[in-house]
Specification:
The complex is a heterodimer. Chain A is an all-beta fold. Chain A is 0% helix and 54% strand. Chain B is globular, with a radius of gyration of 13 Å. The chains are: A mainly beta, B mainly beta. Chains A and B meet through strand 5 and strand 10 of A and strand 5 and strand 10 of B.
């Protein structure tokens, strides 16, 4: 079965960086686009970033454009999110999600990122 | 950016009752709308995609309808495990992919 396991979350000061990773298994990873979606405490989900199955195409939400970078390693079945210049508003649970026609078919359990001084 | 507005914010119902949830888009999204269920401490779960298609394993009591700007998620007879928050999401025009603000279905 599909399994997505995020890691790398934690507490970080504003302006600092953090890198999240998502390990995928149970499906042909190199055939599927992937997304990162975040959810601030008590709020609804917010789409963050997309990467095509081969890593050639990437898209970002305006709120993270220029600060976050999505990447993937199809040899290791992982997708990453490099987050720079973090802001308190980036505090959220970050989920990686397997795409299904630009919907989110399968999700990981999430990793919490807290940006606070 | 396409804004999705869900109503009501909270729906208080008893098990066995019918639930009708609404999602309205700020512009047409054709049929490119999905519904998700989220329980506390869990990731969202895809229920319905392309307005009316059920994801694998979704019970028959869940159904979706609508097109253009107005969509409905119906739960025909609420089971105890259906009390949760429900979100709609559009994929017609992106980036960004956008979600609605959610409807909480709570036990009356």
């Amino acid at each position: 079965q599909v399994q997505l396991v995020e890691s790398g979350g934690g507490v970080v000061h504003p302006g600092r960086s953090l890198r999240l990773s998502c390990a995928a298994s149970g499906f042909p990873f190199n055939s599927y686009p992937m997304h990162w979606v975040r959810q601030a405490p008590g709020k609804g989900p917010e789409w963050v970033a997309f990467i095509s199955y081969d890593g050639r195409f990437k898209k970002y939400a305006d709120s993270v454009q220029g600060r976050f970078t999505i990447s993937r390693d199809n040899s290791k079945n992982t997708v990453g999110l490099q987050m720079n210049t973090l802001e308190p508003e980036d505090t959220a649970v970050y989920f990686c999600a397997k795409a299904y026609g630009d919907y989110f078919q399968d999700w990981g359990q999430g990793t919490l990122v807290t940006v606070s001084s | 950016e396409i804004v999705l507005t869900q109503s009501p914010a909270t729906l208080s119902l008893s098990p066995g009752e019918r639930a009708t949830l609404s999602c309205r888009a700020s512009q047409s999204v054709s049929s490119y709308l999905a519904w998700y269920q989220q329980k506390p401490g869990q990731a969202p779960r895809l229920l319905i995609y392309d307005a009316s298609n059920k994801a694998p394993g979704v019970p028959d009591r869940f159904s979706g309808s609508g097109s253009g700007t107005d969509f409905t998620l119906t739960i025909s007879s609420l089971e105890p495990e259906d009390f949760a928050v429900y979100y709609c999401q559009q994929r017609h025009k992106w980036p960004p992919l956008t979600f609605g603000g959610g409807t909480k279905v709570e036990i009356k």
